[in-house]
Write a structure and sequence with these properties.
Elements lengths: L1 H5 L7 E10 L3 H10 L2 H4 L2 H18 L5 E2 L7 E2 L3 E10 L14 H4 L9 H17 L5 H5 L2
Antiparallel strand pairs: 1-4, 2-3
């Protein structure tokens, strides 16, 4: 509902596409937990031991085939993963309908909810919006593909 009411309909409609993949390496999870620990306890013997146990656990549940085969509930391997979802908002245009400049990205920059994002995520979203103009300029990969 947010997207449909935020971007005006034009001849070449906006396309919102999701890409999903499962990441079976869980090293980053233990790294994130370690980074979350306060500085004064990060190097304590207890924290080091706990993080080592977490890393071992993550390695065990992420190994090929999982930790064990679940015959009772799923009928498959009991395995840990992180599902990653990537979103892409773009427009297909003909070679004669290239973006005139970053001003056409205005509706993206004003999407409701963008201001409420954490600064790193807001910056990434605006980076992606800026990247759209790169793909739609004369001589770009998209312009060559749709010629």
């Amino acid at each position: 509902m947010v997207l449909t009411g935020s971007v005006a309909e034009q001849q070449y409609p906006w396309i919102f596409q999701l890409f999903v993949h499962d990441e079976y390496r869980l090293d980053s999870l233990a790294d994130e937990v370690e980074a979350y620990a306060r500085d004064e306890v990060r190097d304590s013997a207890y924290t080091r031991h706990w993080l080592a146990a977490l890393r071992d656990h993550c390695a065990d549940i992420a190994r090929p085939g999982g930790l064990f085969h679940d015959d009772q509930v799923t009928g498959g391997p009991w395995q840990g993963n992180r599902r990653k979802i990537h979103a892409c908002l773009f427009r297909r245009r003909s070679a004669t309908q290239l973006l005139k400049g970053p001003d056409e990205l205005g509706p993206i920059r004003d999407l409701p909810g963008l201001a409420e994002l954490e600064p790193p995520r807001r910056a990434r979203a605006l980076e992606m919006a800026d990247a759209l103009s790169l793909f739609c300029t004369e001589g770009s990969l998209e312009a060559k593909l749709f010629n």
